[in-house]
Design brief:
mainly alpha; globular; 8 helices; about 160 residues
Length: about 160
């Protein structure tokens, strides 16, 4: 992708606060949410998500479709995209929902024979290091997921 195409795609992903991202004809852009995660993983649009946008606010919900695709295909790419979606959300929704989404991704990965730890570390590396609404950074949230009370109570028992 050349610089002009990348710039165009980045500009399409930004929307004014509270305005849903739409394509022509009023259809929502689920494919652009996936594109946002792909670009985010390549660190092409990290700074675009520092302000709350319509796309960022919908990312946590998108993580669920990535978990479903991971469960169906056992392709690690869906784990990476799901973790990118969670990272982009940056606990901007509700930390409890973040835990549940991470738990779903983690369980799907393990059931597929994928060791999720390295992927969580990869996502943490590109995640925000600034404290957010939950008084912890997304980077720390991802790195400490396996040691969290949620993991111990809701994820670990399902691993056996």
């Amino acid at each position: 992708m050349d610089a002009r195409q990348a710039s165009y795609r980045r500009s399409r992903l930004l929307a004014p606060l509270g305005e849903l991202a739409h394509q022509q004809g009023g259809k929502e852009l689920p494919s652009d949410l996936e594109l946002a995660c792909r670009l985010y993983l390549r660190r092409e649009i990290r700074d675009s998500f520092e302000v709350w946008t319509a796309v960022r606010g919908r990312m946590l919900a998108k993580a669920w479709s990535f978990a479903d695709r991971l469960a169906d295909t056992c392709d690690y790419r869906w784990l990476r995209l799901g973790l990118a979606a969670v990272s982009i959300d940056d606990n901007g929704t509700d930390f409890r929902d973040t835990y549940v989404a991470l738990g779903a991704l983690y369980l799907c990965a393990v059931r597929c024979g994928i060791q999720p730890g390295p992927y969580f570390e990869e996502a943490a590396e590109i995640s925000s290091s600034a404290s957010n609404m939950e008084l912890t950074s997304m980077r720390d949230f991802l790195l400490r997921f396996e040691g969290s009370a949620y993991f111990g109570e809701s994820v670990a028992p399902k691993l056996d």
